[in-house]
Design brief:
With 206 residues, the chain is an alpha/beta fold. The protein has 9 helices and 4 strands. It has a single domain, classed as Rossmann fold (3-Layer(aba) Sandwich). Helix 1 crosses helix 9, helix 5 crosses helix 7 and helix 8 packs across helix 9.
């Protein structure tokens, strides 16, 4: 256990968390890493998640370096705001003196677009492709695309589309998905780089 890095996933809600957890697991496995993943509970949308993150981060100021994760992964939707502006807002919320190693993910505009970013993988998992992404700034639109595809395939989900995350991420072609969703490509590239540096720092070459 001592050799397993600890990664904290601070995500907007369950749909973000399960997708990001599956993504970290897959990229870490490529590097022969088995990190310990922890996810503080966050619910209630962009503003509440960001405020809860700041409160959670401040708790480490009283603990010096004790308990600071090897890597922080912060993922919150851009919603209807410009992606670059929201990404800068998330970066600015991170105190690098407390969390020096971090990755920011910012689905544009909503994480449901990441779920359908690779239609081929979606069809492989669900059995049908999702409807056309019309680049709407409405989370209900993307949830409806997924729900309609699941209904057409006859797949019941107990707790919603987030249940698909592990299988979708496992089947996903990151190049194809990244071409469809640049915000996902940026996150995958940055996360892979951070994990590689973490692996190298813990297990340097002889």
């Amino acid at each position: 256990m001592a050799d397993r890095p600890r990664i904290v996933l601070f995500c907007e809600d369950r749909g973000h968390e399960l997708f990001v957890r599956a993504l970290v697991d897959r990229l870490a496995a490529e590097l022969h890493m088995r990190p310990v993943l922890q996810a503080p509970s966050t619910r209630g949308g962009h503003a509440r998640a960001l405020e809860e993150f700041k409160v959670w981060q401040r708790s480490f100021l009283r603990q010096a370096t004790y308990g600071i994760p090897d890597l922080l992964v912060l993922v919150i939707d851009a919603n209807c705001s410009p992606w670059n502006d929201v990404r800068r807002e998330l970066e600015a919320a991170i105190d690098e003196a407390v969390m020096p190693h971090h990755v920011v993910g910012c689905p544009d505009p909503h994480v449901e677009r990441w779920y359908i970013a690779d239609p081929v993988a979606f069809q492989q998992v669900v059995g049908v492709q999702p409807g056309r992404d019309r680049e709407k700034c409405d989370p209900r639109f993307y949830k409806q695309l997924i729900d309609e595809a699941l209904g057409g395939a006859g797949i019941p989900l107990l707790t919603g589309p987030a249940d698909l995350a592990p299988d979708l991420v496992a089947a996903m072609d990151f190049y194809r998905a990244g071409r469809t969703q640049p915000s996902l490509r940026h996150f995958v590239d940055e996360l892979r780089g951070r994990l590689r540096r973490l692996a190298d720092s813990r297990f340097p070459p002889p």
